[in-house]
Amino acid sequence: MNSATDDLEEPGRPSKSQRKRDMTALQDMGAELVMLNADHLAQINLPERLFQEILEAQRIHDFEGRRRQMQLIGKLMREIDPAPIRARLDVWNGVAKESTVQQRLVERWRERLLADDTDLTLFLGDYPGCNSQHLRSLIASVKRDRALNRTPKNYRELFRALRDIVSGKSAEAAGQD
After folding, report:
1. Residue 142 buriedness (CB in 10 A; 0-12 / 13-18 / 19+)
2. Which end of the chain has the lower number of beta carbons within 10 A, N or C?
3. Cα distances (Å, whole numbers) of residue 142 to 12, 83, 110, 136, 148
4. Under a CB-based contact definition with an 8 Å cutoff, are residues 159 and 114 in contact?
5. Which domains does the chain have, with CATH numbers?
């Protein structure tokens, strides 16, 4: 019999193509696990053998050896429920994306504040309660450092101050929800 009629005879069984897609998805999830550091791996409740094979894959640098190790990890992933692992990876990926968005917002504000003095008023309107005198001082220091071709110490300090202000507002908004 051919596979088309086999699939028709067993309606509850997924097609061969679907099974391959599922196996590839598990292998891809295993690859994500291999990319994690030891702290993150320890936070996921993994079977001991899978955990050891992931650590082994992190040590392998040979292309073919690593490929075979990834296949083994994919096979081991089929023996466990991947939903909790996927949920944890999604949370971490979401946090990383949110952090990146916030960092870019802070970078845009820093460039706007250095380019135009009137943007400080807009920033203070968006983030009331922050120390405007400290921000003015940092902005002046960065401009002076640039004019004298000094190290960007104050440029980084301005970023940190803006990040703290923006993340403080983000934390307040999250607490109000």
Report:
1. buried
2. C
3. 67, 49, 10, 10, 10
4. no
5. 7-85 (1.10.60.30), 98-176 (1.10.60.30)
Tokens of 59: 């040590």
Query: Distance between CA atoms of 93 and 100, rounded to whole angstroms?
Result: 11
Q: What is the pTM of this model?
A: 0.49
> Sorting pLDDT into bands at 50, 70 and 90, what band is 39?
confident
Residue 41 CB-density burial (10 A; 0-12 exposed, 13-18 middle, 19+ buried): middle
Q: Which of 56, 57, 64, 33 is nearest to 46 (CA)?
A: 33
**Mean pLDDT, range 5-21, rounded to an integer:** 74
User: What tens digit of pLDDT does each residue of 140-162 get?
Assistant: 999 999 889 888 888 999 999 99
> Residue 67 corresponds to which tokens in the numbers above?
């490929």
